[in-house]
Design brief:
This protein is an alpha+beta fold. Helices cover 25% and strands 42% of the residues. The strands form 2 sheets. It has a 5-stranded mixed β-sheet with strand order 1-2-3-7-6. A two-stranded antiparallel sheet has the order 4-5.
């Protein structure tokens, strides 16, 4: 059975199946790649907070997932970030027996790097 280390798979499935995200991005990648064509999305597990129970049994985990939207134009990036937020914020999901109980946007950042604008969104994912 999958653990919270696999939470990115749920995020990827949601993003790949969202019509608005698919319309705005060419691909959704799990980590950095040098073969991507703008616009695209990268996601990664940025942190994990394990919450064991008092009895020592596994408890709920909170995983921080960073989703970064890369685009050629600034406004295009903001639009893609808005689509990503709409697809993920306050959503639930499941994959391979792993259940995402909630997903909440907690931080964001924007910038320009390597000839692309980026919009970085940080989500807290409760597993």
């Amino acid at each position: 059975m999958a653990t919270s280390l696999s939470a990115g798979g749920i995020i990827r499935d949601i993003l790949q199946n969202d019509p608005e995200v698919r319309k705005r991005a060419n691909k959704v990648f799990p980590i950095a790649t040098d073969k991507a064509i703008l616009p695209y999305i990268l996601y990664r597990r940025a942190a994990l907070d394990h919450n064991p129970t008092k009895t020592g049994m596994p408890g709920a985990d909170t995983v921080q997932i960073e989703v970064v939207c890369y685009t050629a134009k600034y406004a295009e990036g903001v639009g893609l970030a808005e689509a990503v937020r709409a697809a993920l914020d306050y959503k639930k999901g499941e994959k391979d027996g792993l259940v995402m109980r909630s997903c909440t946007l907690v931080d964001s950042e924007e910038g320009y790097d390597d000839d692309a604008f980026f919009q970085s969104l940080i989500f807290n994912v409760k597993i």
